[in-house]
Structure formats: structure tokens, C-alpha cells
Amino acid sequence: MTCLVPPVSDTVPYAYLAGALECLMADFARLSRYAAIRPYLEGSIRSASIRYHDRGYQIRLHCLLWMTEDYFQGKELSQGSWERYWKKATKTEDIRVSDLTNLRLKGTIETERERNLQWIRERMPYGRSPDSFLELI
Fold it and tell me: Which of 60, 79, 74 is nearest to 5 (CA)?
């Protein structure tokens, strides 16, 4: 899941970056406690990226979420539902979820491992190496 904070048309001044990141992590904690998510969320890894634009900075939150098998048995949330929960958690309508991908083993372990690594490389570009994420899976 990738979340943009603030929306693309808005930015955060440098002086407010630390506070904005703190709020973003608190919002994620709130999201993880919702009844439709909490019973199925086993864990997460988050990575924030900050990009400079003309008038300030934009923050993106990249998340890997580990969901229980029960979640994939008819409890799976749609992209629209994740967006609604994220907007509720952040208490704003301006924030959007730009990417939501289901990573599951569907083929051989080796082909799925490579596909999942590629997805992680593209969406979690900061911090740890993609291989270290797969050690946790």
C-alpha cells in the first residue's frame, strides 16, 4: 500500500516535516486498529519517502502488510475500502492510496519470490534491501 501525504497538489514546508511524519505514523496505528483490519493484520513494515517539489515536500508512506489467511477467504478489502479507511484514519478527504497489490504464492516459490522481489524494489525503495523483506515472509 502506498499513501500520499499530503495530496499531490499540496506540500509540507521543511519546518513541519518531522511533525507530519509523526502524525502519519499515528494515523497508520489508528488504521491498524479498525475492526475490519485488526483481526487480519499480522504485521507490517513501513517506509516513508520524502520528495521535494517547488513549494515544499511531499511524503509517501510505503507499507508491506502481512494479512492472515482468513483475510483472503472472503474478507479482502477493495482498493476503495482501503482508501475510505485511510481517509478516516487521517481525518481528511485529500489523502489517497495510490497502489494496492496482493502478493501471494500462486506459482512456484522461485518465480513468486522473483515477482515479489521486483514489486518490493519498485515500491519500497528506501531503507532495507528487498531480500531482507523476503527473509521475513
Answer: 60
Which pLDDT tens digit goes with each residue over 55-65?
A: 788 888 888 88
Amino acid at 113: R
| Alpha carbon distance 18, 32 (integer Å) | 22
Residues in the chain: 137
Q: Which residue has the cell 497538489?
A: 9
For residue 8, which phi and psi values (nearest 5 degrees)?
A: -55, -35
**Between the CA atoms of 21, 22, 23 and 26, what dihedral angle is there, to the nearest 10 degrees?**
120
* Spatial distance between the Cα atoms of 3 and 101, rounded to a whole number of angstroms: 13
| CA atoms 47, 62, 3, 90: torsion sign | negative
pTM summary value: 0.71
**Tens digits of residue pLDDT in 64-100:** 888 888 888 888 888 888 888 988 988 887 766 666 6
